Amino acid sequence: MALAKRTYTLPPETLVPFERAVPAGRRSSVVTALIRAWLEQRERETLREEIILGCREMAAEYRRLEEEFHPLEEEVERELSVDPSSR
Length: 87
Hints:
Order of helices and strands: HH
Number of strands: 0
Number of helices: 2
Strand content: under 5%
Largest sheet: none
Helix content: over 70%
Oligomer: single chain
Distance between the termini: 71 Å
Radius of gyration: 28 Å
């Protein structure tokens, strides 16, 4: 994997505890893991929002289909609940 060096400015109240907690040779991998986790979380949030929006957009269609097919479901249920010996 190719690496790219970047420079970012961080406040000391963030940087100092990070440098105390993470040894010098591991900082890049920890930052990489944190950025990936943040990106994945952001992607999950975006996907969740899109799914909710899609469900709202499809609600009327789902309702129409339910109204169309509900009588058929009731008919099947009535037929299945009839005592087989009386047929």
